[in-house]
Structures are given as C-alpha cells and as structure tokens.
Amino acid sequence: MKKALLAYAILILVVGALVTAVMPETEATEEEEPKEARAALANAPEIARRVERLREKRFPRGAPKVELLPKAELDRALAAAGGPPDQDERLGAAAALLLAQVGALPAEDAAALVERRHLGPGAYLPEERVVLIEEELAKEQPKAAELLAAGELARALDAEMTPEAPHLAPLFRDDEAARLAVNGGAAALVERAYAEEHMGGDQPPTEIAPGAPPAIRTLAAFPLQAGGGYVARLVEQGGVAAVDKALAEPPESTRAVLHMDEARAPAERSPDFVVEPVLGEGWTRLSGANVGELDTIALLRTGLRESPAVQAAAGWRAGRFETWTRREGCPPPCRRESASVVVIRFANPATALRFVRSMRRALMEGAGAKPDGGRGFAIEDGGAALVRAGRFAGLTFAVDSRQAGELADAALEG
Fold this sequence. Notes:
- By secondary structure, this protein is an alpha+beta fold.
- The chain folds into two domains: about 1-80 and about 115-260, no CATH class; about 275-414, 3-Layer(aba) Sandwich (Protein Transport Mog1p, Chain A).
- The chain is built from 15 helices and eleven strands.
C-alpha cells in the first residue's frame, strides 16, 4: 500500500489538497444529546478497516464509533468541545482585539475564533472516542460523508502521536499550527487514497461557507492544503515511516511546513520591543505572543486574496505582537481604549518592503483605513501606522494615527 500512498502523494502536489468546510458560529450549550439517540453511519466498521489498511496500522483499542448528528446538535457538540486545554484567556482576549483592529475578522467573530477547535461538518472527539458527522450531509451527499468519516478516522488513528489535534489552525501558537498540519495532511492523504481505491477516484468537493471571513478560510484550509502538500513530500522522500516520524517530531513552525525545502536553518529569535514610555500611565499589558508565517498570512487576508497574502508573507523569519489596554473587558475592536503592536522580522529589506506595501493595501481595501500622513491611517474610531526599518516591519493600532506612529517608532527601535 506504500506505492498507492506515494502515487496519491504526488497527485496532491499536482492537483492541490482539500479545502475544509467552515460552518457559522453557533452558541455553545451545556446540554448534550443522549448518546443512545445518535444514529450510526451504517458502513462505519468497513470504513475503519479500509483506513487501517491505507494507513498501515491498526486502532490499538478498536475503531472509534462513527455517529450522525443533526447540524444544530453537531454545532453545539463541537462548540462544547472548547479550545485547547492550555489556552490563555488573556492571550485570547488580546488576539481578539488585534484581529478586530486589523479588520481580519468581524468583531463579533474575533473573540469566538480564538476559543474554537472545530469547524465544519465533522470531527473526531478524542475524549469520547467518537467521530461525529453531520446527519444532513450523510443524507444529501452520502459519498462526501463517507469520505469525511475516513478522514476523521485517520485523525483518530494518529491521535496517539498528535493528541487532541484541533481542526482549525490556532492563531499565535505557531508550533501547534505546524503540528496540526502534519495531522491534517496525513488525513488528507488517506482521504485521497480512499477516494481513489473505494470510490473510483470520485472525491466529492466540500464547499467553503460563502459567508466565511477570509482569515477563517485561510486557517481552516491550512491543515489540509499546506499540510497535505507537506505530507505528500514526506511520503515521496521516505514513505509512510516519514509521516509517522513527523507526527512524533512535528515541524516547529508553519514556515517549515510552507517552505519545506528552505526552512532548515535555525529559527530566528522573536523581536523584542518596549512601548510603555509612549503609552504612559494608566495602560496595562493585556498579553502577547509570537507571530508566525501563518498568522502573518491571516492578517494580510484582511483585504488580500489568498495567493497575494501568501506571497507577501513568504519572507517571514520571526514576529511578535502585544496588546495593551486602559479598560479591560472592552469589546473588540476597542480602538479608543487599547493599543496593539506587531513587529515582524523578514529575510531582507526587500521582503519587508513587500509586506508593508501589501499590508497597506490590505488595510485600505479590507478595513476601510484612510491614509493620514506618510505612514499613518485613520481607521474607524482610532488610528494605525505601518512602518519599515531595514528588514523589520511594524504594524500598530492606537487611539489615533499619531500615537500609532510613535508606537511603531518605539517598537522598531527596540
């Protein structure tokens, strides 16, 4: 079966990997549907056996159950699954502010996104050892539901090496997003091989929800698109054993996933900066985190299409953001009461300049920013600035463009 997987790996590189579906956010509830009321996918045992053969290993405790839930109940079950167990609430709040300030996500979606693990018509829940599939999908598109079940069972089969891997690439946790890409890429490879062997090559497409914000599309597609290509190259170079090794020892950054052939150099240290003197008294640091290449793409998706955003972020080498506030609990984007600083180090001044030009266009087209001076912007109820110094780029948000520019200068001096 290694030859089959190698063939499908090459196919992924030529055709492109899958794109996962993104469903609208729904309110979580503590109510759970009784498990005995859940319908089971009739051919689930056979799907599990086929996945074992394709993945060349067996479920150590037997295959998980595959159960069907109506869409509304599935949304509640996935929302109740919650975020990663180590999610920092203050980091989540800071990330939500930044995402809303840059316009990458609508304010009402930003806070919810940083807490979610699962989006789409199905997921594997390791705590329950169950694969949940949308019942409506199973009725309307049985082949798509079967293929989805195969992918989720493949995730379950690899769960010992990648415990509780989410489906949505997390923001500002670059190492976790890279780990997820291996898990999602391995599942994509199995799905493609499953379709070829058991469906005559018929792989029903899964459409992205028309109303999904571009940043969500990027994060949702990353594990299968970028991860699929990454895993395909692993199989091409070292077979299934190389995939297992990557699951046990995943890449450290999304850059390593996106640029497999050029990312073997040691990672660069995250930029340091000090902005407290500019802010003055009354401001409190909410939180901060490293900014990876995938995060950079998501920020650019404010106003750019996928391909230009990927190109503009390609020179990324390291990054960091911090958010400050003078009124905690202020709902995003809270531009009058908060300030955000993003500093990204690029490979060289040319790639930094490319990012600044692209980010400028993204802010104007996606967030409605209006130029206010050479580097500043007026943006709904606040200001922003975009500054480059050598191979560093600074993106800041504050109460007005003047303060944003001062923050950028202070950050780039650090």
